[in-house]
Design brief:
CATH class of the largest domain: Alpha Beta
Structural class: alpha/beta
Number of helices: 11
Radius of gyration: 21 Å
Number of strands: 13
Distance between the termini: 15 Å
Helix content: 25-40%
CATH topology of the largest domain: Rossmann fold
Strand content: 15-25%
Order of helices and strands: EHEEEEHHEHEHEEHHEEHEHEHH
């Protein structure tokens, strides 16, 4: 079976959605013999016409008929990875929705499955996100009703999509994202790992940590007796000084295999992320998949998407000076790893395979 995956960008471009789609394509090929032809929605990206044996076609401009000319005319299935800002600067990719609508309604043999990585923005009244939110919401509603199947990463998103589709979809799967940098099988216990803490992710996320969360990072290093902080990702533009005497080693951008090796032998991974949205963080997923202790700067009072503070991630106690027993954080790391296994890459590939093949 051949499917067409529509993505904003693909590697070597730095794009979490592109990484997600490529990992999924690999697993669908390996486990189910489902091949992928990628359609890239960013005309500014430059790359090869194929990646790991997957053919790639690219729109030349974001306007009428550009995507339509690339979509197949015969019986076919398209998997759209939707994030509004990936296909339009203001997050309103009208061109994309209109062309998919024309393609979808042209034949009963055209099927659309949409993975909603994001829905629509919100913001303060004086921001562009606030004024554009209704337009973005309208496009999401159109896509939800246009899609034969829908899937997303948060239960809140699934509930919203159910309403926006006017109950067209009786069931919308809400599945937390998987790790984009591997899922090792043989993991060391925390006590046998290097006393290393990892700060991993996009430049803006890591910049926020160094600008706004140094006190928590410092306390974490002290309590866990961290000897080294490793910073992984594009340069933040900051000169990173030692944290509470602990040196920061800047690795920069590295291949997934190298990152996986570092994570597998590190005690903890640090985040500054809204606890209500950890299920859609590929960085949190990577920490969980590698059996690390996820450390976040803030907590939620109730479980969200199965994630619970002090059970699946740790927040250092402001009153404590050191960790009394590593067993208490090992239990959190184990819980995070177990939570992750219910939606790891092979599990998700099976869910997508069922959605893609179960068509009338």
């Amino acid at each position: 079976m051949l499917i067409f995956q529509v993505v904003p960008r693909l590697p070597p471009a730095i794009d979490g959605v592109g990484d997600y789609a490529l990992n999924l394509a690999r697993q669908l090929r390996q486990d189910f013999g489902i091949e992928t032809h990628f359609l890239v929605g960013d005309p500014t990206c430059t790359g090869n016409p194929e990646l790991e044996g997957f053919p790639i076609s690219q729109v030349t401009e974001r306007s009428a008929n550009t995507l339509l000319s690339l979509l197949p005319s015969g019986k076919s299935t398209v998997l759209l990875h939707y994030v509004g800002y990936g296909y339009a600067q203001r997050g309103c990719p009208l061109w994309l929705v209109e062309e998919l609508q024309r393609w979808r309604t042209a034949s009963a043999n055209h099927h659309l499955v949409t993975m909603f990585h994001e829905l629509y923005a919100s913001g303060l009244p004086w921001t562009s996100a606030f004024w554009l939110s209704p337009w973005q919401r309208n496009l999401v509603a159109r896509l939800a009703r246009l899609s034969d199947r829908a899937i997303t990463s948060k239960q809140l998103y699934a509930d919203i999509l159910h309403k926006l589709s006017k109950s067209q979809h009786t069931h919308i799967s809400a599945i937390p994202v998987f790790s984009n940098v591997g899922e090792p099988k043989n993991l060391l216990p925390l006590a046998k790992r290097q006393r290393r803490l990892v700060v991993f992710g996009g430049g803006n996320r890591r910049l926020r940590i160094y600008q706004h969360s140094l006190a928590v990072l410092s306390r974490t290093c002290k309590m866990l007796k961290i000897k080294e902080v490793v910073d992984i990702g594009a340069a933040t533009g900051l000169t990173l000084s030692p944290v509470n005497g602990v040196p920061i080693v800047e690795m920069g951008q590295r291949p997934a295999s190298v990152i996986s090796t570092v994570l597998s032998n590190s005690l903890a991974g640090f985040l500054d992320y809204s606890p209500d949205f950890l299920a859609k963080s590929t960085i949190f997923a990577a920490y969980c998949a590698h059996g690390m202790l996820p450390v976040n700067t803030c907590c939620n009072t109730l479980p969200v998407d199965g994630v619970e503070s002090e059970k699946h991630y740790w927040i250092p106690d402001e009153q404590a000076t050191e960790l009394q027993n590593i067993a208490e954080v090992q239990a959190i790391a184990d819980n995070a790893y177990t939570w992750y296994q219910s939606h790891n890459l092979p599990v998700q590939a099976k869910i997508f395979a069922d959605l893609l093949t179960d068509m009338p």
